[in-house]
Amino acid sequence: MKITIDREDLLPILANMANIADRRPVQPILAHVLIEAAGQHCRFVATDLEVQLSADLDHPVDAPGTCAVPARKLYDICRALPEHTPIEFHKDGEKLLLKAAKSRFTLHILPADQFPYLSTHSSLCQGNGNAKTFREALAVVANTMAQNDARLFLNGVLIEVEGQELRLVATDGHRLAMMTLPFASSLESGSYQAILPRKAVLELLRILDDGDIVLEMSDASFLLNDGTQQFACKLIDAKYPDYRRVIPQGHPRFAILDRQAFKSALQQSDVLVSDRNPTTHLHLENDQMTLRSRNEEQEEGEIQIPVEYQGDTLDIAFNSRYLTDTTQIFPQESLRMRVKDSDSSAVFTPVDSNNPLYIIMPVRL
């Protein structure tokens, strides 16, 4: 194998591959990136047997060949080189020789036939969408995923396809986020559900950019293709709970908040929240919201902001971090907060729609 590639064409591909490749692999091959070169095309593949990423690069090949190269070492070498440096790859037996300007490197490689591809299954649901829209929707729900929860279905994001819509839902048991986006689905009737694991969600947030994407989903695997990259992962083998039962109906009270004013007030309130129990108390009364915080040293903060609220006086408390996430989830400048009482969850949405939707359970006063 012999090929010469410009550093700037190679670096973003290797950065993605190095993140996928396992740093503490059970099998040594899992710390490697597979390089396949032939004709006018190169392909790079990395996997940890849970997720897999392959990237295609149209580039003339001097001599065809394949090999598995240590992913992190190759990325670190390329990153350290000067910009726009041509890098020559030359496979010599069990070694890969790298030449870049006056620099020379030799890396041990493994046979390509040892590389374990992630298996995928026959598609049950497929469709087309937009990468940027899909990434933005994932970003909305990602913060509400659980981490290392014994209930495996909480450690990921539910994908639900109904008609020509795709819905993403995530919850950690204390809050829930949901967003719906258009999706040109192949489903003619019924619906499809799958749970994307946490690592897959985080990798997709990192690699997705813009343009058209194709999704193919089975009962055990997920595949995304954007034309130059193909991302695949195993799905969580569990049934997601009925999230619709968590969405409150008929909350009679609501407040309209200015997002920037709310964000500023939360930032001020957070200075004096408890480290062990970060709680912000909200007091709603006659077009005014008061945010109160207190810490272990009995230090207190109180911030008032104007809101649109007409109704009975209400006191309710929430985890401070969960409240702060509302200012990150919504791009709109005004938010609607629907509440019932101090013991019931609050629902945050844009003023003119219910998409996205964010629900927070209260802290008992």
Can you summarize this structure?
This protein is an alpha+beta fold and 365 residues long.
Structure description:
Keywords: Cytoplasm, DNA replication, DNA-binding, DNA-directed DNA polymerase, Nucleotidyltransferase, Transferase. It is found in: Cytoplasm. Belongs to the beta sliding clamp family. One of its GO terms (molecular function) is DNA binding. Pfam families: DNA_pol3_beta (PF00712), DNA_pol3_beta_2 (PF02767), DNA_pol3_beta_3 (PF02768). The protein has about 375 residues and is α+β, with helices and mostly antiparallel strands. The protein folds into three domains: about 110 residues, DNA Polymerase III, subunit A, domain 2 (DNA Polymerase III, Chain A, domain 2, Roll); about 120 residues, DNA Polymerase III, subunit A, domain 2 (DNA Polymerase III, Chain A, domain 2, Roll), CATH 3.10.150; about 110 residues, DNA Polymerase III, subunit A, domain 2 (DNA Polymerase III, Chain A, domain 2, Roll), CATH 3.10.150.10. Helices cover about 20% and strands about 40% of the residues. The chain is built from six helices and 25 strands. The strands form four sheets. The protein has a nine-stranded antiparallel beta sheet. β6 and β7 form a beta hairpin. α3 crosses α4 and α5 packs antiparallel against α6. The radius of gyration is 25 Å and the shape is elongated. The chain starts with a strand and ends in a 5-residue tail after the last strand. The mean pLDDT is about 95.
